[in-house]
TrEMBL record:
The chain crosses the membrane at residues 22-43, 64-82. Binds a copper A center. The lineage of its organism: Bacteria, Pseudomonadati, Bacteroidota, Bacteroidia, Marinilabiliales. The keyword Membrane applies. This is Cytochrome c oxidase subunit 2. It comes from Labilibaculum manganireducens. It is a multi-pass membrane protein. Belongs to the cytochrome c oxidase subunit 2 family.
Length: 314
């Protein structure tokens, strides 16, 4: 009775692992061979065995050998590396497309039917293409088990694709240092059989979690989904942006066009800060760290966020 082979986590595992093993094998071979040769020379040509230094004038044959052999080995490594890399750029036409957005400091995935999640859900044995976008700084989407990594540069179109080969949950990281909470920018890839994925995908009730009657509950959900709490604390502690504790209704000193002025944190100010974050920067914080959410949040969304902010009294 033969045991059934366990499938790879993705279609790129074999190519990447083969390339890695070939390169590592060559490195180990020369590490051992060169170390052994050095030890041999230490004993073979020590002073007692060779009291008078021997002058060597060179060897054309030896120079040809140590030029040709390394060149061949480098080309072998290049071949396996290229054969592992080339398929990563050949996306099938029927790939299932997911928009993947990275921001400080979370990932968000948007599906063609409008669903949004902070965990990536994909169907088993089907090509999946991730259209990658960074909203602020350089991020890098890394799925170790799939042997995939792609830097995500603001303003530049990038993508990655894969075919999940094994059901389960896999780690997804940002592997490009992107600021204060870079290490918390992690989530998961959930691979499900096609029938289970279809049920999840068409179930629109899962896009709108149950909301309590507590004031600001919907605002908190919007805040979490858009990663606002990565930069704004709720307890008064200082992060990248000002804390929201007691902020709404407070008088703040802001820098506007290089000039300091007093401003009341009201609805108009919050909306403008979300859409034009560099207009009025609270004194003591840096300009340019927050990008506009004009295409991410509606005024109704901001209204719900304001309701949540009102609950954060001092």
């Amino acid at each position: 009775m033969t045991s059934k082979a366990i499938p790879d986590a993705s279609n790129f595992v074999k190519g990447v692992d083969t390339s890695f093993e070939v390169i590592l094998g060559i490195i180990f071979f020369f590490l051992i061979a060169i170390t052994a040769t050095m030890i041999y020379f230490v004993f073979r040509y020590r002073k007692e065995k060779n009291p008078v230094a021997t002058q060597i004038h060179g060897s054309v044959s030896l120079e040809i050998i140590w030029t040709v052999i390394p060149t061949i080995l480098v080309m072998v490594m290049f071949y396996y590396g290229w054969m592992g890399y080339k398929p990563m750029k050949e996306v099938p036409d029927d790939a299932f497309v997911v928009k993947s957005v990275g921001r400080m400091w979370n990932w968000q995935f948007e599906y063609e039917n409008g669903k949004r999640t902070d965990t990536l859900y994909v169907p088993l044995n089907r090509a999946v293409k991730l259209d990658l976008k960074a909203l602020d700084v350089i991020h890098s989407l890394y799925i170790p088990s799939f042997r995939l990594k792609q830097d995500v540069v603001p303003g530049k179109k990038q993508m990655m694709w894969f075919i999940p080969g094994r059901e389960g949950e896999y780690d997804l990281f940002c592997t490009e240092y992107c600021g204060l909470r870079h290490s918390s920018m992690q989530t998961s890839v959930i691979v499900m059989p096609q029938d289970k994925f279809d049920s999840w995908y068409i179930d629109t009730t899962k896009t709108a979690p149950l909301i309590s009657d507590k004031p600001g509950a919907l605002g908190l959900i919007i805040v979490k989904k858009n990663g606002c709490l990565a930069c704004h604390s709720l307890d008064g502690s200082k992060l990248v942006g000002p804390s929201w504790k007691g902020l709404f209704g407070k008088t703040e000193t802001v820098i506007t066009n290089g000039q300091s002025r007093e401003i009341n944190v009201d609805t108009a100010y919050v909306i403008n800060s979300v859409y034009n974050p560099n207009d009025d920067v609270v004194k003591g914080f840096n300009k340019g760290l927050m990008l506009s959410y004009k295409n991410e949040l509606t005024e109704d969304d901001i209204g719900e966020i304001i309701e949540f902010m009102k609950t954060l009294s001092d």
